[in-house]
Task: structure prediction
Amino acid sequence: MADNLPTEFDVIIIGTGLPESILAAACSRSGQRVLHVDSRSYYGGNWASFSFSGLLSWLKEYQQNNDIGEESTVAWQDLIHETEEAITLRKKDETIQHTEAFCYASQDVEDDIEEIGALQKNPSSGVSSTFTEVLDSACLPEESQSSYFNSDEMPAKHTQKSAGEISLEIADVDESVEKEKYCGDKTCIHTVSDKDGVKDESTSTVEDDANQPNRNRITYSKIVKEGRRFNIDLVSKLLYSQGSLIDLLIKSDVSRYVEFKNVTRILAFREGKVEQVPCSRADVFNSKELTMVEKRILMKFLTFCLEYEQHPDEYQAFRQCSFSEYLKTKKLTPNLQHFVLHSIAMTSESSCTTIDGLNATKNFLQCLGRFGNTPFLFPLYGQGEIPQCFCRMCAVFGGIYCLRHKVQCFVVDKESGRCKAIIDHFGQRINAKYFIVEDGYLSEETCLNVQYKQISRAVLITDKSILKTDSDQQTSILIVPPAEPGACAVRVTELCSSTMTCMKDTYLVHLTCSSSKTAREDLESVVEKLFTPYADIEINKEELTKPRLLWALYFNMRDSSGISRSSYNGLPSNVYVCSGPDCGLGNEHAVKQAETLFQEIFPSEEFCPPPPNPEDIIFDGDDKQPEVPGTNNTVIAKLQSSEESKNLESPEKHLQN
Amino acid sequence: MSMEDYDFLFKIVLIGNAGVGKTCLVRRFTQGLFPPGQGATIGVDFMIKTVEINGEKVKLQIWDTAGQERFRSITQSYYRSANALILTYDITCEESFRCLPEWLREIEQYASNKVITVLVGNKIDLAERREVSQQRAEEFSEAQDMYYLETSAKESDNVEKLFLDLACRLISEARQNTLVNNVSSPLPGEGKSISYLTCCNFN
Ligand SMILES: Cc1cc2nc3c(=O)[nH]c(=O)nc-3n(C[C@H](O)[C@H](O)[C@H](O)COP(=O)(O)OP(=O)(O)OC[C@H]3O[C@@H](n4cnc5c(N)ncnc54)[C@H](O)[C@@H]3O)c2cc1C
Ligand SMILES: Nc1nc2c(ncn2[C@@H]2O[C@H](COP(=O)(O)OP(=O)(O)O)[C@@H](O)[C@H]2O)c(=O)[nH]1
Ligand SMILES: [Mg+2]
Result:
């Protein structure tokens, strides 16, 4: 597109993560001219969600991160005047580390052939072909190799290399040429049009029945073929139904761009078993695990928590104790204590005081029933939708969007110390009054004194739920307490296909904890407790009860939350920094940061007020009576207000009558 | 206000290169006017028009790109849950036609597979400057299994027809129960999908 960017803005925002996107919407909404850019080809930065092939391309990017810089960028040095200096930005992203991908699902050659046949129906499509290469360099665990290497075309030397687990980072460059050749005919697999989906499904089912009559088999090529069905979040979060993001979505009307599903279950992991935590009144009464006495004790305790402030005598004496100590005094049986501590209050054993614990429990209970019987919501198509929705709001109010747009440096006026402009990769100078930049874009020099935390993440594709029930469409959250005191609890979120984040008959499982080591070292033990690798199945019959791992990815992500502005070197006063995703379950940090920065920049402006209702803008078209053959049309334009409310479940209070 | 003031609600989404006339098509249809000058209307998110077809009230929610196509930066979420897509090019601009396969790829990636796609060649009032022949466009749309129509937002040619035909098609698709909404509709007993959170729903 031969369209030039304007060169005068009020606010330039670099990075499309959640806080930047909220700020973009807020600024644009208050009448500022906003330019919002991202160096990547997708929205969201580390808040993004990817289709399966998209995720593989993302992985590959980190694998190849080294050879960035060949691109022709116009030198900025000549564009800086004498009275100015430049603060350069980072050339390559360094917020993701230790990526390791594993494929456990079988790589059936026959499947591939079948799909290549199907491909001919739709020769025009051509999504990127990177996935096979990535997979090849990501190593395959030994168990699944037998079927994979049935293919004669597979270079033999790969076999030696893939013993054990080799991370993507150290993929052999020499092999890639050979790999390309091998992939030549496989490349097309995932380009099979969705329009053929139904048909393909039935053919493969037939084939499956022949091969493996007992279990519904998901092969790697099925995952690839249905790759579009996946929306895999880099950061795993949920929305508290009384949380600040929900409030902001509602207030700003950005909620009209996004739909949610309830998290349907809160789970606990105790003594090697996954159990459902009864949290609503109905849950408690229907629970088969709890005895009558336990039910009564739990109900009594939860009811107390809802109004604990009114009964100070019940907890005053325990103010100085930890919440877990306090729970022991409440006649709760060990499993009830576990439920309350880990799954309801979601606090850690050691660090949480009685008051914090009671408060967390109360909050949990108050969130219940706003939208369903757990306090959490999950956005359809993944968390990555949410920043995009704020970006749309910004664009609707005139914000200009430019992905794949790299910024080389800030131009700072020496005298005032204020930033005047950016210079982009075309060498274009774009002026603005305020600049907002995501932490990951700042150079090493700027961040020299910053101490970053890390988040350990795992993404798993599995074939069954970790707790099977009548319905296979459950969305669950599970907190796995640390194995030893002092370590971090691991948060597990299991998404079903109706959240639109994974293909039918699979589950997408996210594990998150704050890092002490690499993601795999931090999370693998929990993965092993809950899942079994695909190929173990034939050998180990009792393992059949566990869901099988089809594919797994581990990575570490930088956690730049909670860094004070003064830790960054030499930031001009009108440059503001947003952090990447934090480790917390909710989005409160991002929302708070966006609001705080907005109020700092524009103290007198309202933060994200509701926009005019689009339905109010509509003109009345009654004067027009178009004639369309075959139909009897009257064109009626309407002024309506949100009748959509009927889509909502009515809020119920489960614990209070 | 009544709860049920329409029989059908469809989300229609416009895409295509910047400058082909998407915004003009929407405004011509919903407001009956051809906006003079360039400036995009600030703050208009989507336009609503309720039409009556064979006695049934059909509410069309028509979404424009908010200009994000200008630098090829449309959000994926824009495509979600669209019932129909209007892919527009400018018959006087070869480039806008050549970009169509790229748009189709984006549709395939992000839109529901049950979405109805209509190809629209706009600005037929500028016939003397035509760069893309009708035949070429017809062949292309046939190969891609799309409906094809040529319009002029300026002269109001075929604009009503475009949207009303689309509404008819959407209704018959809905009748056959193959609409997008079913894909995400929850199975019994599960959390419903929650949309349009509005203030009035709580307290
Ligand atoms: C149902 C529910 C709703 C929640 N809603 C929010 C929310 O809207 N916003 C938010 O920031 N956190 C909320 N939390 C708390 C949030 O889960 C934890 O802060 C988060 O899990 C971090 O845990 P942690 O182990 O790091 O810290 P923890 O040791 O668990 O707590 C860290 C701090 O968070 C505070 N906190 C604990 N629970 C809550 C709570 N319910 N609401 C507010 N503060 C709390 C504590 O007082 C403490 O100072 C909620 C928790 C639950 C169970
Ligand atoms: N002659 C003519 N010009 C049109 C027509 N539709 C749009 N335009 C002009 O094309 C330009 C771009 O239109 P716009 O609706 O903003 O395009 P969009 O970027 O696709 O939304 C404007 O200058 C319009 O006046 C049409 O049917 N005929
Ligand atoms: Mg437009």
Notes: Residues B 22-23, 40, 64, 67 surround magnesium ion (ligand 3) (CB under 6 Å). Chain B has one domain: 6-174. The domain at 6-174 of chain B is CATH 3.40.50.300 (Rossmann fold).
